[in-house]
């Protein structure tokens, strides 16, 4: 029987990063993945392919709506070749997953293909696709089995017309009318992809606003922008049935007055979140406890109730974000090696990759009000930037929340072009407990979108934003 210092079950961002860090720290490491490619949901059917589709559809939208204004004339009709677009997406996925395999080989990590399950607290059974079973022993085990799309109890996902994000990345045609159940990140991103490609899109959301976990100002602005893009929203609607009739899907919901509303489309994307994936893990055999939602219970060091078993990523508490999982994978590897790493969960940024992009870190204005914190606000519109006007990306703003007494930055919320990259400036500043004045006194290259951060910081320090 092969013996390892660490065995990791699951090869998503949390799992493969944990494996690399363990190997870097001198541990004999194994990783177990039930699918034939590494990378988990993120690389195969999540973050990477969805961004490929978002970028391709964005190019198409620019070509039909904006090229002429830029003085670019294309003779003939501009058409979508969905098959080719999805083929390009798949090539990006293939290249990325092969990159993870390269990293495993480079770091001398043993990869096992098969379903990993606990035999006991130090032994993992691996059921391979050919039916054979192999067993390994490990001093430490990290659970990194991730998550899968959630649904509602009364919805039957048929993977043809009533679909999840996985199937939405593989459609053979552009829908005529896509009904999206859920106004969160996944629903909005994929809804925008197909809206750009020519579909009518209706987002049905139970809450009274989209992206409800983010600052309300971001929700309001993104709703306004997406309405301009002709996306329809049915907020405060409780879906009660989803039924397929041939090539049609009928969605029934009650609005906030309790009146029934019927939506009819040819596709329904169910995007109501994700749930932890622990099927087949056999956690009981190792004595590992799960909560009532199926998440693995861990302490502040991400250790389970069993001393040598840890868990990271979507399978445990907290935001289901690939970069959170990576930080946790690194943390556990370093803890096992006897180091003293830490994660500040308040400074894990959240991003929505629509266009304009939405990004945030730290506390929302609603959270500060609820906590009774005395704060001040600095906000600056993207339309006031020369760079934004030059690129015709003028929607959005940057909003900085700072402590009224100390001026320490408590939260940064932004919507606009390239905010997914821009948010890292805020994370860096907040990691060093910067004040709004600190940011306002740093030189920002001109012309850039980043100038909006400086201007918002100036506004937060007092009524002194320069360009508005």
Automatic annotation (TrEMBL):
PANTHER family: DIHYDROLIPOYL DEHYDROGENASE, MITOCHONDRIAL, DISULFIDE OXIDOREDUCTASE. InterPro entries: Class-I_Pyr_Nuc-Dis_Oxidored (IPR050151), FAD/NAD-bd_sf (IPR036188), FAD/NAD-binding_dom (IPR023753), FAD/NAD-linked_Rdtase_dimer_sf (IPR016156), Lipoamide_DH (IPR006258), Pyr_nuc-diS_OxRdtase (IPR001100), Pyr_nucl-diS_OxRdtase_dimer (IPR004099), Pyr_OxRdtase_I_AS (IPR012999). It comes from Maribacter arcticus. Pfam families: Pyr_redox_2, Pyr_redox_dim. GO terms for molecular function: dihydrolipoyl dehydrogenase (NADH) activity; flavin adenine dinucleotide binding. This is Dihydrolipoyl dehydrogenase. GO terms for biological process: 2-oxoglutarate metabolic process. GO terms for cellular component: cytoplasm. Disulfide bonds join 42-47.
